[in-house]
Design brief:
4-stranded antiparallel β-sheet; two-stranded antiparallel sheet; 15 helices; alpha+beta; about 30% helix; about 425 residues; 10 strands; globular
Length: about 425
């Protein structure tokens, strides 16, 4: 945009920055103090409510108070069991729910598409009362991990195990301190979903609005001796997907659980299909519409494998492994039974999810699984080779223009106007 002289704050600049979506509000306040814009909307909201300081997002919404009135940053795990200083109704999750309701109110009876993204449960793991102590340590699920994973760790995973969040979440007392707050953050979202749906019921918008509840990733929280969201275990890549479709065509599947393998890429074609705008899908979109599945009309299996990739070049783990940024990559193919991981510069991994659902037993070097690894490797490689890279012209346009150069007066390799050679399905050459 700078090269083309487009002002980033102009209507065109904002639309371009947001990949074609029109932003109503961005809650990007999770960055450290020096990177937070003190004038962004949520901070201004907090200031209007009487919360003082240059950065009330940090000092009130994401900090606790010590015994002597000192501010205890929620970035540090030792403070996560304490309530955030902000009033619950003014914290981030209720605030964004309110902004979503305001947006829908402004639409009247018009159709709309709204991406309501809650920043929590996310670092900092701190939540206001009464959610901070709704759950006790006896309600925490134990971490999914084994000693063998750490003792014989894959080099990439071993490097990530050295991160501070991994080392801390590997200690039970640290995890016990944080998990009740994390669970409280999720409970707060549950309650705000109830508030949102109640408003939609009263406004009649539950009758004409498709709702998809999902997430961008999971969180390790000590599983597999890791913290954060990186890597490709189920706890990170397998996310919620709950769809409410008000159309009567979905009545046959309403209330059911479907085991179809789904990717996040499927969202856009599903939405376009729902509003009758699924045009030229193969040109720009790699996902598949879920509408036939949701409405009981999927006649063939949607897919038998899903894919994911990870770039850990910004993480300290890259330095620990001595890799260059372009080498800090991992790729995954997962079928119903198998998960195959390809790490650039390292041995591959294989997990048998039928017999090892927790992904403890790495079969990446098993002599009994050579053929399975080879088959999945080729499928992964084919996926990498065939991803949509041509976006400047549609596939249909390519089909229509194939072999059409002579019609444009471009004659290549012909003998004469009287003798032209055309391809013929019944012979190698057809001389006319």
């Amino acid at each position: 945009m700078a090269r083309l002289g487009v002002d980033k704050m102009s209507a065109l600049g904002v639309l371009t920055s947001e990949c074609g979506l029109e932003p109503v509000e961005r809650d990007d306040g999770l960055w450290p103090d020096k990177l937070v814009d003190p004038n962004y909307a949520y901070n201004n909201f907090l200031k209007s409510k009487g919360y003082d300081g240059d950065n009330p997002w940090h000092d009130w919404a994401n900090a606790a108070e010590g015994p002597n009135g000192e501010i205890l940053s929620g970035w540090y795990l030792n403070s996560n069991h304490l309530p955030a200083r902000v009033r619950e109704e003014d914290s981030e999750t209720p605030y964004m729910t309110g902004r979503a309701i305001e947006f829908m109110e402004a639409q009247g009876d018009d159709p709309f598409l709204l991406h309501l993204s809650y920043i929590k449960p996310h670092w900092p793991y701190i939540v206001p009362a009464p959610y901070h102590n709704m759950y006790g340590q006896n309600q925490i699920m134990p971490p999914v991990r084994s000693d063998a994973e750490r003792d014989k760790a894959h080099p990439v995973l071993e490097a990530h195990m050295k991160h501070p969040e991994s080392l801390n979440f590997s200690m039970d007392d640290v995890r016990d301190n944080v998990m009740p707050a994390y669970m409280g953050l999720i409970k707060q979202i549950d309650d705000q979903m109830g508030r949102l749906f109640a408003w939609m019921e009263d406004a009649g918008r539950m009758d004409d609005t498709m709702i998809v509840f999902t997430s961008d990733h999971g969180d390790y929280l000590g599983d597999h001796w890791l913290g954060e969201k990186e890597m490709l275990h189920e706890c990170s890549i397998r996310v919620p997907m709950i769809v409410y479709d008000p159309d009567t065509a979905a009545d046959s599947t309403r209330g059911t659980k479907d085991e179809t393998l789904v990717e996040s890429l499927d969202m856009i074609p599903t939405f376009l299909d729902a509003v009758g705008g699924l045009v030229d899908k193969e040109h720009l979109l790699e996902g598949e519409s879920l509408l036939p599945t949701m409405r009981g009309a999927q006649e063939v299996e949607l897919r038998d494998a899903v894919f994911a990739e990870i770039d850990y070049s910004f993480k300290p783990a890259r330095k620990y492994t001595g890799k260059e940024p372009a080498e800090a990559r991992g790729f995954m193919i997962r079928t119903d039974r198998w998960k195959y991981l390809l790490w650039e510069g390292y041995r591959s991994q294989l997990f048998d999810r039928e017999n090892d659902p927790n992904e403890f037993d790495d079969l990446g070097e098993s002599g009994d699984h050579v053929n399975i690894r080879a088959e999945l490797h080729e499928r992964l490689f084919r996926w990498l080779r065939t991803r949509a890279t041509r976006i400047t012209i549609s596939e249909e346009a390519v089909r229509n223009r194939t072999g059409g150069a002579p019609k444009q007066g471009i004659i290549i390799g012909e003998w004469s106007p009287e003798e032209t050679i055309k391809g013929d399905p019944d012979s190698d050459y057809w001389v006319e």
